[in-house]
Automatic annotation (TrEMBL):
Ranges of residues in domain OBG-type G: 60-287
Residue ranges annotated for the TGS domain, each copy included: 287-362
rRNA processing listed as a keyword: no
Pfam families attached to this UniProt entry: MMR_HSR1 (PF01926), MMR_HSR1_Xtn (PF16897), TGS (PF02824)
Species of origin: Colletotrichum spaethianum
Biological process (GO), any one: positive regulation of cellular response to amino acid starvation
Protein name: Ribosome-releasing factor 2, mitochondrial
Length: 366
């Protein structure tokens, strides 16, 4: 690991004084080394250290990420029944602490990760294990100290970016398909602004992708975007909500500006302010919906909801009930916002809405 870290520093130094064509190659090498750094070394075993191998449970997982002692553990204790150790000094949480947030019939797993420190992407401290756990999440809650706004956020974003976590971004609009023969076919849908065919060719060759088809649809795509597509197995695109704690320690003017920033919520765990707002916003960002089922001749069961993603179909609902249900599916009746009339008879492709009631009819197989 030390050798990889030294190589990373050497490449970063070279990048500061190099030309653009060679710069792309250096970025590619840097991405490969960082991916290697996060892979378990020989004899590392199956887990990432005590307390880090937490089974994913519930309808979604949210990772609480932040520097030590910014309020993650306090927040977890207030919104779940879990008591993560709380203290005013750094490195209180030494293992990943799971808790369950119950909201609108859904169970959302909150994972309180040990405080990230600078250099986590280089394997310092337990940064590697923290980041690996964060990658398994459906959403990241970046908890920040409102009195240290700029430096903390920039540092955390840089650390997560370095290990392949892309916050609040979509995958690059670049098509790449490896082939067995035929060389490289590189096409730009529009004249590129940030790279050219030579640059793309050199990077692909450096990755030993010599036979492939590439279509760059985004004229503003960069070398970094191309590397992300090549390294797709080491990239994770995750929604992030920035939560600023300790708002009782800043001025009202500063707080007002902070609260207006995109993807931002403010709170004070000390004074119990804004905590429910954070929970509500998490639900909105996860885009989960509740579906209720009914049986023939009975009222809908509103005591227990099926939780599915927004834009899910009847087929997804069938899968949540039982993986073989769609094999005998005949039709479904739907009551609710997605139905044109009450009830509407629909097929597997019908898109359901929040709090729809669904009755599924199966074809009998002899």
């Amino acid at each position: 690991m030390v050798n990889i870290t030294e190589k990373i520093k050497e490449i970063e130094d070279e990048m500061r004084k190099t030309q653009k064509y060679h710069l792309g190659l250096l970025k590619g090498k840097l991405a490969r080394l960082r991916a290697q750094l996060l892979e378990p070394g020989p004899g590392a075993g199956g887990g990432g250290g005590a307390g880090f191998d937490v089974s994913k449970s519930g309808d979604a997982r949210i990772a609480l990420v932040g520097f030590p002692s910014v309020g993650k553990s306090t927040f977890l204790s207030k919104v779940t029944r879990t008591k993560s150790e709380v203290a005013s000094y750094a490195f209180t949480t030494l293992t990943a602490i799971p808790g369950v947030l119950e909201y609108g019939g859904a169970e959302i797993q909150l994972l309180d990760l040990p405080g990230i420190i600078e250099g986590a992407s280089e394997g310092k401290g337990r940064g590697r294990q923290v980041i690996s756990a964060a990658k398994t999440s459906d959403m990241i809650l970046m908890v920040l100290d409102a009195t240290k706004k700029a430096e903390q956020r920039a540092q955390l974003e840089a650390e997560l970016e370095a290990v392949g976590i892309r916050l609040n971004r979509e995958p690059p609009n670049i098509y790449l398909k490896a082939k067995k023969a035929g060389g490289m076919k590189i096409t730009f849908q529009n004249p590129p602004k940030n790279m050219d065919e030579k640059m793309v060719f050199n990077i692909l060759r450096d990755y030993k992708i010599l036979n492939c088809e590439v279509l760059v649809r985004d004229e503003y795509a960069t070398v970094d975007d191309l590397i992300d597509v090549i390294m797709k197995d080491h990239r994770k695109y995750i929604k992030c909500l920035y939560v600023y704690n300790k708002i009782d320690s800043v001025s009202l003017d500063f707080l007002d500006k902070l609260a207006r920033e995109p993807q931002t919520v403010v709170m004070s765990c000390e004074l119990d302010l804004g905590i429910q707002d954070v929970v509500d916003r998490c639900w909105e960002e996860l885009k989960l919906i509740r579906i209720y089922t009914k049986r023939k001749g009975t009222d809908p069961d509103f005591s227990e909801a099926l939780i599915v993603r927004s834009n899910s179909t009847i087929e997804d609902v069938c899968d949540r009930i039982h993986r073989t249900l769609k094999d005998t599916f005949k039709y479904a009746l739907v009551w609710g916002a997605s139905a044109r009339h009450i009830p509407q008879r629909v097929g597997l492709g019908h898109v359901v809405a929040d709090e729809d009631v669904v009755y599924i009819v199966s074809a009998w197989k002899a």
